[in-house]
Amino acid sequence: MKPAVSRLLPGLAALLLLGACGGARGEFGTDGERGSDPTNSSNSAAARGAAPLVDADTLITLRRSECFGVCPAYSLSVSGDGTVSYVGTSYVKVRGVASSQVDVPQVQELVNEMWDAGYFDMIEPSPCGSSITDAPSVITSLRLGPQTHRVEHYHGNPCSPATLTTIEDRIDEVAGSERWLRCDTPTGYCPPSY
What is the number of domains present in the chain? Predict the structure, then answer.
């Protein structure tokens, strides 16, 4: 193979992979995110308006599964009144049940972020290209007023919107889950015998 052609192959392969993740199935907007196509004004945060206020029935949930390695497996929920409930199952510092409290304005801020990101329109796209096997899955949900929405996100799917990971990380941040997850090891990962 000629040197010039061999230098172009990695770039061409990347373009083909990105194209395979594509909006050809109609799952994404022109910016690659589900429900956030800037050319479609009905999907914009401005068109949705402000998020409804949280109330006693508001509930945000997150569940992370195990992976082939040492991925922490746990579930948590954040209620509209600021109650955080956690259940750790494996590769976590705290196994079993724990709880804490956050301020209601923090819950409202998280709901606002999910609302502005178009969470109620998000879906996990079909796998495309070369998916990574043995990666963890994350399932999130939001109950807000009469609406409830759930998204299953396999982290080995290269076509998943980055916004989903951002939302998952923000739920963890608001819930303060780090205190229950990180072990006192050099890497912070929790071995099975911890």
Answer: 1
